[in-house]
Amino acid sequence: MENLIDFEGKRILVTGASSGIGKETCMLLSRLGATVVLVARNQSRLESTKAHMNGTDHVILNFDLNEPHHLNEWFKTNKSLIGTLDGLVHCAGISYTQPLKFMKSMFVEETITVNLTSAIYLIQGFLQKGIRAPQCSVVLVSSVMGLVGQPAISAYSASKGGLISLTKSLALELAQSQVRINCVAPGYVQSEMMDAQKKIISDDQLQAIEKQHPLGFGKPLDVANSIIFLLSSMSSWITGTTLIVDGGYTTH
Q: What is the Cα–Cα distance from 214 to 60, expressed in whole angstroms?
């Protein structure tokens, strides 16, 4: 029987590869036989991710997603290292907890740029001639906060909601080119982003958030598994959708 989760000979680019969901996705892809192009700002943390991966052919490339307008040129410059890609996963993201009355323009702009604007230019670069394989898959990592409301993260919610809308629009635009694009919307995941959240909220607040997840907080691997599904042949008739992976958070 055909193995639909076989990534042997496949090449996947993953942003945010230095931590959290991105790091877990890279490690899982390597165990499934893929060659991964790891992208983030921090060289040493990328090397740490690579050290935990199976295989030796993976490629580390640095890029600061605060400057997404340079992505087209970055793809051209690094074409020989990037190779022909069968998939793109955009895991990179940032979050600031700031009530509207205290919100600074620099935080708003950085959040929108890294989380949303960069996705547009990433996909544009990925679609350049000679970069993508004839049939390929794009997965964007959004958040349940793009679907439901929560105080003091309005810029983050707006950026993640934008990814969901972007997915729907590009699915229609790219279908004729045999490019599928889907989105994953995780709930709260035990990651570096949650560690940062713990520093600004009380234990009681954290416990209240956990109770909103009937299955408890998730792990990066829970989300990585869903990303793999959307990259794989198992989802060959799925495009333009958002897969909610939240331990039941949005059932409230």
A: 38
